[in-house]
Amino acid sequence: MARKLKGIAAAPGVAIAPVVHFHPTLDHIPTWSVQPGDVAAELRRFQAAAGEVTAGLLTIQKELAGAIDTQDARIYDAQLAILHDQTFQADVEKEVRQHGINLEVALQRVIARYEAVFEAMENAAMRERASDLRDIGRQLVSALMATERGKYTANGQDYLFVADEFLPSDAGLLDREHLRGIVTAHGGKYSHGAILARSLGIPSVVGIEPIMLESVTGALAIVDGDAGVVILDPTPEHRADYERTLREQRAIDRRIAEVRFQPSVTLDGTPVKLQANVEGVRDLDSLETEAIAGIGLFRTEFAFMERRQFPTEEEQVAMYRRAMEGAKGKPVTFRTLDVGGDKPLGYFRMPEERNPVLGWRGVRLTLDWPDILYTQMRAILRASALGHARILLPMVTTRSEIVRCREVLQQLTEDLRANAVPHDREIELGVMVEVPVLVSVLPDLLPLVDFVSVGSNDLVQYLLAVDRDNQRVAKMYDPFHPGVLRVLEQIAIASTAAGKSVSICGEIAGDHWFTPLLVGMGYRELSMAPVFLPRVKLMLRSFTLDECRDLARRAIARPSTALVRKLVQEEIQVRWTRQLGAAEERRS
């Protein structure tokens, strides 16, 4: 029976291969007492082990030099710095001398203390450096015990690396020729293991459900590194879908270079702004600003969630300025704090709620705690002096919420002007449409805002009354439902009629099968995770505006989800496959 497991998308791409489990070889660490007279000999063991690990890291770095970016290769410099850090070495020596224990145990204790320090840090990227410490400790103990780590192979067959975590030293042990994907129970998007997976071009999902580690070695699985999903024991339908995705991806990869920096237009030249969703300033480093029209959604809550207390105004200003600079003159839409529901703050005590997704979250929370809203809006205003910033209000339900936020913005603008603080005096305020009731009253609200952004993830979930994370009903979550399409069209028509720009920033914006339908409904701004931009641009350049309008009209008129999907399969997918095939023939 197929099982769909959700994790964290760590490295993009799709892989289909058998599962092979890999476990640490150090199941037992020996313990013995070290007498004062034997300490010097024990420390000589430490220096010898450090020398062996150093040589191994330099070898891995050299072997991977041609396969990964120069910047990513510096991960091993970071490990070498830990290995030769004088404080680290002194702490290990102190542990041996004071407690009379052997090096293997002393290392475990010191590494554990260091890990605790890193894991308590506010910055998520710094917290994930704890894995480097574990890796150094494992390598040192292996050297001390003269344990040679075996290569990660599957006897010359394609395989998925499945383990508790993927550490930098593991990269040197991989049979990369046959490795198709990486799945781990632990790790994060910014761990060095995830960074290496991306640099090596290996699809990766981390933080997966424990059942994956309990699966049988040799079981077939699909790794979707774009969606952060693993399908264990896939059905023939799953395989057919993802095999088609793989074929497309190979063709897309070859065409990306051709359209990468070409205009985002339909086949007959209608412009559509393709923008990026960003979770924090770290994402800016890998963002190709030349290929996007701006940042359509900057999720400010992730910076709040990484901390141990609310960031100050100055800290927020620094973060938002960094985003403005990273956008290189293109617009940045900052969504105000959207916590609550599935995004709690560890340092902010929130009430127990029976249904938190429908509870105290988004603008409801920030209006009840105006200090949070005032500080954040003021910080965004100050950062707006560097370019074109926009403020987006999440989880809006009533007209009064917009009025109150507009009053706050006006008050802050007047205060900054009176104190000669640079800011954009014409900064735009927008509303996020994700609560269904807002759709019916949208014409009444539009005079109060400058733009509209559709949060399709929650909107679809609320429209269908389906929790997409609930495995019992998740299969019912389908944005191709004709009722959903009609609501999306209604939003686009109302916004356009009022002269307001309207964008869509949920997952369907990055689903290239949806692209012609959205354009046909009237959407001219789509914001998505950067990994989906190439496919959406290729799809956009495959249809004329009239064709998009015709497809949208016929899809909306269909009476069932099955018939909408049939239209997509028979006309959009067929056209897409045909065009990719024609492009490949021209190349050959």
Model description:
With 588 residues, the chain is α/β, with parallel strands linked by helices. The protein has four domains: 3-24 and 150-234, Phosphohistidine domain (Glucose Oxidase, domain 1); 36-144, Enzyme I, Chain A, domain 2 (Orthogonal Bundle); 252-269 and 434-588, TIM Barrel; 300-431, Phosphoenolpyruvate-binding domains (TIM Barrel, Alpha-Beta Barrel). It has 22 helices and 16 strands. It has helices spanning 39-64, 70-73, 75-83, 86-99, 103-119, 124-127, 130-144, 192-200, 236-259, 301-305, 313-326, 362-368, 370-383, 399-418, 437-440, 442-445, 456-464, 482-497, 515-521, 533-540, 545-557, 561-587, and strands spanning 3-6, 8-11, 14-21, 159-163, 179-184, 204-206, 220-224, 229-232, 273-278, 295-299, 332-335, 389-393, 428-433, 451-454, 501-504, 525-528. The strands form two sheets. An eight-stranded mixed beta sheet has the order 1-8-7-3-4-5-6-2. The chain has an eight-stranded parallel beta barrel with strand order 9-10-11-12-13-14-15-16, surrounded by five helices. α19 links the parallel β15 and β16. α1 (39-64) runs antiparallel to α3 and α5 runs antiparallel to α7. The mean pLDDT is 87.
